[in-house]
Specification:
By secondary structure, the protein is of the alpha/beta class. It has five helices and five strands, in the order βαβαβαβαβα.
Length: 129
């Protein structure tokens, strides 16, 4: 039986071009995406709405992705967390502090991103890249 509404993803990415790129790819895959440019902007959304997945850059101003994930775990424990980063050292810290979260290192292919999101959500994306 098909899911009546698409999975909802909250994307936190401070780089505007990357944010647009990821948002478009995920929407093309059939996900409902809401994006913000910093972790502090994501927290109120997590408090007000339900998201199936938090997809967050790790290195961001004001509140990094790891802090955001910890807040997300408190506010919305059912929301899955996935990180994206271009920094190898940060990947290790994220894996240590959020062991259940998948970490995707930049650069990655959009197909890989969509497959990992699909895997995390246990859903199916309708995507042809």
């Amino acid at each position: 039986m098909p899911r009546p509404t698409p999975f909802r993803i909250l994307l936190a990415e401070d780089d505007a071009a990357m944010r647009t790129y990821l948002e478009r790819a995920l929407e093309n895959a059939g996900y409902a995406v809401q994006s913000v440019d910093r972790g502090t902007a994501a927290v109120p959304l997590l408090e007000q709405e339900h998201f199936d997945l938090l997809l967050s850059d790790i290195v961001m101003p004001e509140m990094d992705g790891i802090e955001l994930a910890q807040k997300c775990n408190e506010i919305s424990p059912d929301t899955k967390v996935m990180f994206i980063t271009g920094f190898a050292a940060v990947t290790l810290k994220a894996s240590r502090e959020q062991p259940k979260a998948k970490v995707l290192s930049k650069p990655f292919h959009l197909r890989d991103l969509v497959l990992e999101v699909q895997r995390a959500l246990g859903g199916e994306a309708q995507m042809s890249l």
